[in-house]
Amino acid sequence: MTQESPFRVVCLAGPSDSGKTTLAEELVPRLADHGRVATVKSIHHDVEIDTPGADTHRHRTAGAETVVGITPELTFDISTHGKRDPPTYPDGTALLESDDPELRALASTLARLEQRGYEFVVVEGFSKAPLPTILVGDRDPDAVGGTVVGRGVDDLAKLVETVRGLEPLVAFEDD
Fold first, then answer.
1. For residue 2, is it within any domain?
2. Are 107 and 96 in contact (CB under 8 A)?
3. Domain total for the chain?
């Protein structure tokens, strides 16, 4: 039996500098009026998000698969699994069936976010993902993996209602 989930995910797809981040900045606070929101950003190059020499960096380079840092204002986690070596799902199921490591990494991330109780996730990039998609800029609808549910030039209130009305994405099955 499938667990009922309020978990709704939308992908923002478009070329570089087309306005995806700006649209995410506009959607997030409006969706947050209706529930918890997380975002996922596809980054196409390696970046070091942990300062070399910092304790969290030392933990990670010592071999910790995940390091969680908790500051007075923020909590962050860093995992050694990225697009090249995505983690496996806790229960072995796949949210997005794919042999593509990038999509497997996204699916694993979405599964974690669902488990953490988020109602909405705005995914920036990952245009191959079979997720409901808002096209931003000059992107051919045939170039994305999901169903096009809107365009970046659409009325913002309409886009928010579209995202709120999406079918819930369910990552995990009840036993």
1. no
2. yes
3. 1
What are φ and ψ of residue 79, in 5° steps? -115, 150
Which among 151, 147, 131 is positioned nearest to 139, based on CA atoms? 151
- Rounded CA separation 175/74 (Å): 34
* C-alpha to C-alpha distances, 133 to 12, 13, 44, 127, 146, nearest whole angstrom: 6, 7, 19, 8, 6
Asked if 2 and 174 count as a contact pair (C-beta separation under 8 A), the reply is: yes
Residue 75 pLDDT greater than 70, yes or no: yes
Domain that residue 112 falls in: 8-47+88-164
- Does pLDDT of 26 surpass 90? yes
CA dihedral 126, 71, 90, 5 (to 10 degrees): -70
pLDDT at 87: 55
DSSP letter assigned to residue 33: T
Q: What CATH number is associated with residue 128? A: 3.40.50.300
Predicted confidence at residue 90, as pLDDT, reads 52
Residue 138 lies in a domain: yes
Q: Does 81 map to a domain?
A: no
What is the Cα gyration radius of the chain?
A: 17
Task: Compute the half-sphere exposure of residue 83: CA atoms within 13 Å on the CB side of its CA.
Answer: 12
3-state secondary structure of 45: coil
> Would 99 be classed as within a structural domain?
yes
31 vs 92, which has greater pLDDT?
31
